[in-house]
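Technical annex, item 7. During the second reporting period the consortium partners agreed on a shared format for inverse folding records so that results from different sites could be compared directly. Each record opens with the tokenized structure and is followed by the designed sequence. A conforming record, contributed by the partner at site C, is shown below for reference.
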């Protein structure tokens, strides 16, 4: 991550022995406004579709992943250009031929660093947009491989190592090799970033060869984003929500929670775990 992701502050640490003044490194949290430009070449329009609290860095990945997981784009080439208008505002130029349902965008796109698009209405909406479903029973992971993934995730979290204040999302293959990792103060932002990065580097959709590991809990918004990308297995070091389990069961995705040490729970489609 670039330097703007970290800032230094003065702090006091108190212990039974006394107080110590020192410099602490914190993760930066700033708003990012995502705009889209759409319509024919003769009648281009702009629309602000989201403001999310994020950690600066990989903003283009974040915007592309967000628009993909919300069903606005289906392929990377439908976003013809992504440019920063300022430090905290960017615009995604959509292909003139791409239809945009602005009414749906105004109704459903809202987000923060703690929660994405949530609730039963969103669960219904996910079922009505174009998304990929995993291949039944494929691929498979051994439990020994899955046991090792949290440590590999932690070792690759460069900014977390400095600040202790970031979530991470990462794609792993069936052998447990790290394919992509992104960090952000928001769980869903980190997931949008990693999916956007996969699109930018030309990964073929759906992402049915990979496991997505997230550093926190597995809420509905993460299960929804994984399902949109056709990811067959979502694993979290924390707990899942009941709506995430429902989402995983309905979309054919394996959902793992409480992945800590040599232990985890499987909440849906256990046939992928050896």
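Designed sequence (site C submission):
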């Amino acid at each position: 991550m670039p330097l703007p992701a970290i800032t230094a502050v003065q702090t006091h640490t108190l212990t039974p022995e006394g107080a110590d003044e020192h410099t602490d490194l914190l993760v930066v949290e700033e708003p990012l406004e995502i705009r889209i430009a759409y319509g024919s070449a003769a009648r281009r329009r702009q629309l602000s579709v989201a403001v999310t609290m994020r950690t600066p860095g990989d903003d283009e990945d974040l915007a592309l992943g967000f628009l993909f997981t919300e069903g606005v784009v289906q392929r990377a080439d439908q976003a013809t250009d992504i440019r920063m208008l300022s430090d905290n505002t960017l615009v995604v130029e959509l292909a003139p031929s791409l239809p945009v349902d602005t009414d749906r965008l105004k109704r459903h796109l809202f987000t923060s660093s703690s929660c994405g698009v949530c609730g039963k209405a969103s669960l219904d909406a996910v079922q009505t947009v174009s998304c990929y479903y995993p291949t039944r029973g494929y691929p498979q992971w051994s439990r020994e491989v899955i046991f090792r993934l949290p440590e590999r995730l932690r070792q690759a979290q460069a900014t977390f190592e400095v600040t202790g204040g970031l979530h991470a999302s990462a794609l792993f293959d069936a052998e447990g090799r790290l394919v992509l990792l992104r960090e952000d103060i928001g769980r869903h932002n980190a997931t949008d970033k990693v999916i956007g990065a996969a699109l930018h580097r030309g990964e073929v959709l759906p992402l049915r060869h990979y496991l997505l590991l997230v550093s926190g809990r597995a809420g509905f918004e993460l299960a929804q984003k994984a399902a949109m990308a056709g990811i067959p297995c979502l694993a979290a070091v924390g707990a899942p929500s009941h709506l995430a389990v429902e989402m995983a069961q309905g979309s054919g995705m394996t959902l793992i929670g409480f992945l800590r040490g040599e232990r985890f729970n499987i909440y849906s489609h256990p046939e992928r775990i050896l």
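Residues 10 and 126 are 45 Å apart (CA to CA). The chain has two domains: 31-128, 143-272. All partners now use this format for quarterly exchanges.
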